[in-house]
Design goal:
By secondary structure, the protein is of the alpha/beta class. Helix content is about 55%, strand content about 10%. It is found in: Membrane.
């Protein structure tokens, strides 16, 4: 029903300019509750309550179908009856507005989907420190890990040093049993402290990952609805799938490898200086070349990895859109278009991945050459016999320098991978989109308790925005909104929303039963005695599928009305609450509302103006500003925007009486 939720002018424009003009050469099928367009249809298909069908022109159906006659009769009736209402207070004052005619030069204004931000340049050391300490909140935790790693490396290196002492029998006073015992002790100590090192690092990082995940969930669940509107679901899925896996598994593994390998390399360099002091002269040159090479590789690898992460979000979002719109895609035969789009997005993601792998292979080769040169230097110094090294010590040192050549490449890879994974959860704070024009401008309204207010205006005038700020789905830019003198911005969301009832334009039902999902548990005893309800096809134990997909939109609106009846809130908000039901059902709904909510304050957004003609006052919005606010009949008689809307809807003075 493409015209149920728009005002009369927009509805008329859709019918005349789109259906009757632009699509004149097409077969057009319109399902609608708006009976005013029936006369413009060539033929009408009417579905009776028992499922039978009547098909013909309007005049033919008026002659032979009693159901159609009854429906057309309700179309022209005003169904509300006058009710006496009594008192309680709401106040809303809007914000200073930028004139609507002002030109905005900010290119980000009005973006439906916010571009994903990407950090640039190197990651600050403070981010690493926060990551290491965020889990347990302990300042000493990183230092404990470093201390255990240092002891583990000492045990690992000295076990081989002790083996060289045993081979050359450096301490002649010691027996073979003593050598063996000490060697076994150092070997067992190595195993114990390496295990302890990995356990401490894993313990710290697991708590850091858990804390970051909790903070990310909290941020997403408490972000304004505007964030959900402007952020593709694929981007959020990327944070909680690939990036969460990086925190839980990949990052932990990389940090463990990096810490142990870096400690081992430092130990090897210290050991080389102890054996060959002249190596200390060459070491600054070696470290300088190593740092230059690392920085050169990181500058590329870091940015490429970030580009890959962003492109992965596009891939996930595209897959999600395809799954959600699969029926529409098949109906229009657009499978090939979306397949091609998915291939393009996947290729873009893989391009970044391949560039990253190629650069990694290049740096491995460069590091291997650098480390091999270091082995050459230490070997020449050992062979010069300047330091009188024994064959076993020279062999040990050469072996460690060969190992150093391999470790350097591993360290760079793990450090770069650690840095690449660290950018995932950097931007966790969320805020309302800035730069967009104000939707409500200088709006000041006071509503009395138990007063019935109809809200109308052209499509996009800001009617639903009033409901958004009442439920704090969107926060005010400035001004205040109070209920019974309490500023709602000072109330908790649960406390505020539990006191309000709403019948939205598009109600959402969760999976379960109507009893549980509609919130009707407290009224079970009341409905059990109703034989009419028992005989109806809809029961309280009726299964509700996900999002209420087994109910029509009109049925979901009626369930939302029932939920509002049960809650007995003092403030009822209706946002096009009957836009998707027929006129007869609309009449019953309005009669029920007038009877059951006579002591409640009602704010009703309506495009069917007849539903609000008997309300206490009508608020007319135009481009987010208050245009008119008075009793319906007074607005009609004095002319103005409301009178124009009534004329477009075919409402005459007789409809007010």
């Amino acid at each position: 029903d493409v015209i149920s939720a728009v005002d009369a002018n927009v509805s008329k424009s859709i019918i005349e300019n789109c259906l009757l003009d632009f699509l004149a050469g097409k077969t057009r099928v319109l399902t609608t509750h708006n009976l005013s367009v029936i006369r413009q249809a060539d033929r009408v298909l009417f579905i009776n309550t028992d499922g039978t069908i009547d098909f013909g022109t309007e005049s033919e159906l008026m002659q032979r179908s009693t159901g159609f006659q009854s429906l057309m009769k309700h179309k022209n009736e005003v169904v509300e009856r006058p009710v006496n209402w009594k008192m309680e207070a709401i106040e809303n004052s809007g914000s200073d507005a930028v004139p609507s005619h002002k030109k905005h030069n900010n290119e980000k204004e009005g973006l439906l989907v916010k571009n994903e931000e990407r950090a640039v340049n190197e990651i600050p050391l403070s981010l690493y420190w926060n990551y290491l300490t965020i889990g347990k909140g302990s300042f000493w935790a990183p230092f404990l890990a470093v201390f255990v790693a240092a002891v583990a490396v000492f045990m690992e290196l000295f076990s081989n040093v002790w083996l060289s002492y045993w081979i050359e029998n450096k301490f002649e006073q010691l027996s073979n049993a003593t050598y063996i015992g000490l060697y076994v002790m150092f070997t067992i100590g190595t195993w114990i402290f390496v295990s302890l090192e990995l356990s401490v690092i894993g313990y710290i990082l697991s708590y850091s990952s858990k804390t970051l995940h909790i903070k990310a969930i909290h941020s997403v669940l408490h972000t304004p609805m505007s964030f959900m509107d402007s952020t593709p679901i694929g981007r959020i899925l990327n944070r909680f799938t690939k990036d969460t896996n990086s925190l839980d598994n990949r990052l932990t593994m990389f940090v463990k490898v990096f810490v142990h390998m870096a400690s081992t390399c430092i130990g090897i360099l210290v050991l080389a200086i102890i054996y060959v002091p002249w190596f200390a002269i060459f070491m600054p040159i070696l470290l300088s070349l190593f740092v230059v090479l690392c920085n050169y590789f990181q500058a590329t690898g870091r940015e490429v990895k970030r580009v890959e992460a962003i492109n992965r979000s596009f891939v996930l979002n595209n897959i999600n859109e395809i799954l959600n719109g699969l029926n529409t895609i098949r109906a229009y035969g657009s499978q090939s278009m979306f397949t091609a789009k998915n291939s393009i997005l996947t290729d873009r993601m893989n391009e970044a991945y391949f560039v990253n792998e190629i650069s990694r292979r290049w740096v491995n080769l460069a590091l291997s050459l650098l480390a091999t040169f270091s082995v050459l230097v230490i070997t020449l110094l050992s062979a010069a016999r300047v330091f009188h090294l024994s064959p076993s010590s020279a062999g040990l040192l050469t072996n460690y320098m060969l190992e150093f050549a391999q470790l350097v490449a591993v360290i760079l890879n793990t450090y770069t991978m650690t840095e690449n994974e660290m950018n995932s959860f950097d931007n966790v704070s969320l805020r309302y989109r800035e730069g967009l024009p104000l939707v409500l401008k200088n709006l000041s309204v006071e509503v009395n308790g138990a007063e019935k207010i109809g809200i109308c205006g052209r499509t996009g005038a800001g009617k639903s925005s009033m409901m958004n700020i009442l439920f704090r789905i969107s926060e005010l830019a400035s001004g205040t909104l109070t209920i019974d003198g309490l500023d709602i911005s000072k109330l908790g969301l649960y406390e505020l929303r539990s006191k309000l009832a709403i019948i939205p334009q598009d109600p959402v039902l969760f999976q379960g039963t109507a009893l549980g999902r509609g919130g009707l548990i407290k009224d079970v005893e009341a409905v059990k005695s109703s034989t009419d309800i028992k005989s109806h096809k809809f029961h309280l134990d009726t299964v509700v599928e996900d999002e209420g997909s087994n109910f029509s939109l009109g049925e979901r609106q009626l369930i939302a009305l029932t939920r509002a009846l049960v809650r007995r809130s003092k403030i009822l908000v209706m946002d096009e609450a009957t836009s998707s039901v027929d006129y007869e059902t609309d009449a019953l709904v309005q009669e029920t509302i007038a009877r059951e909510f006579k002591d409640c304050t009602i704010l009703c957004i309506a495009h069917r103006l007849k539903t609000i003609l008997k309300y206490d006052r009508v608020l007319v919005l135009e481009k987010g500003e208050l245009e008119e606010f008075d009793a319906p009949y007074r607005l009609f008689t004095k002319g103005g925007r409301f009178r124009e809307m009534c004329a477009s809807a075919g409402i005459t003075e007789a409809d007010f009486h």
